[in-house]
Amino acid sequence: MDHLGYEQVAVARHTREVGTSREGNRPNVYYAWLKDFMEAGKERLARDTVRDASRAEVDSLKRENERLKQLVAELSLSVHLLKKQGYPVWSRTETPDEYQ
């Protein structure tokens, strides 16, 4: 950590000492993350700020996400209504054959 500034070292130490116990992270996880972070360096940080998807791709993904949310809502309502009417509805752990 020699090339880091005093404030960065202080933040790293605080994270290690307080963050690992408060957040439930084990110190070995912290040190593995720190090693990866230090090896990646500024190049990785710069790359993370660059957008990989175009605006059109993001919009397309948002539309697809909304469509899938709507589908889940409709299917959930259908299952709820079937259960309410007394139709047998099986869980993921059961197959239709096992349910009967």
Walk me through this protein's architecture.
The chain is built from four helices and no strands. The chain folds into two domains: 6-48, no CATH class; 55-88. It has helices spanning 6-22, 27-48, 55-84, 96-99. By secondary structure, it is mainly α. The relative contact order is 0.05.
Q: Give the proportion of residues in helices.
A: over 70%
Helix/strand-derived class?
Answer: mainly alpha
Amino- and carboxy-terminal Cα gap: 64 Å
Helix tally? 4
Order of helices and strands: HHHH
Using the CA coordinates, give the radius of gyration. Answer: 25 Å
Properties at a glance:
elongated; 73% helix; Transposase; mainly alpha; 100 residues
What would a concise description of this structure say?
Residues 51-85 form a coiled coil. This protein is mostly helical.
